[in-house]
Amino acid sequence: MTDDNCIFCKIAGGEIPSTTLYEDNEFRVILDLGPASRGHALILPKKHFADVCQLDGATAAKVLPLGAKIGAAMKETLGCAGFNLVQNNGKAAGQTVFHFHMHVIPRYEDGPSIVSWIPGETTSEELAEVAETIKKGL
Ligand code: AMP
Ligand code: ZN
To answer: Mind listing the domains of the chain with CATH numbers?
Structure first.
């Protein structure tokens, strides 16, 4: 349920102090110590799941509404123009703490680019080939 070697288990359980925005029986929402913008928060389930693939259905169903609630509060109180919900899975995707968490990142007008990529190019043949490949795992 929790992992003794996991820092986010300890933070979510209150064993390590954090700046907490919200807490209930299943989640703690904290401010990120290395914020991408003012108010950057992390939603931490109290149970240990390494990533989204391990998340149980009941927890998963609550994460998105909680992200919306935190983001709406940020818009109301911080005056941000929008927010990103970001969730990294795997080292290659930028995950550094292997306890599922969702970032809630306030975005301000004229603020820095935070989550972006340069759109690439493709062909209908390539799209069809990639789709067929992924479908084999579904
Ligand atoms: P990720 O790269 O998606 O795994 O995100 C991990 C996030 O956790 C980073 O944004 C870190 O700044 C943040 N972080 C790491 N340790 C702590 C901590 N003790 N308290 C708050 N945020 C942390
Ligand atoms: Zn953990």
So the answer is: 7-135 (3.30.428.10)
Distance CA 4, CA 7 (A): 8
Are the beta carbons of 36 and 114 closer than 8 angstroms? yes
| Nearest Cα residue to atom 12 of ligand 1 | 34
User: Would you give the DSSP letter of residue 67?
Assistant: H
Q: What is the pLDDT of residues 2-53, one digit of tens each?
A: 888 999 999 999 999 999 999 999 999 999 999 999 999 999 999 999 999 9
Residue 84: beta bridge partners? 105
Question: Rounded CA gap, 47 and 49, in Å?
Answer: 6
Q: Does any ligand 1 atom lie closer than 6 A to the CB of residue 17?
A: no
- Asked if residue 28 lies in contact with residue 46, where contact means CB atoms within 8 angstroms, the answer is yes
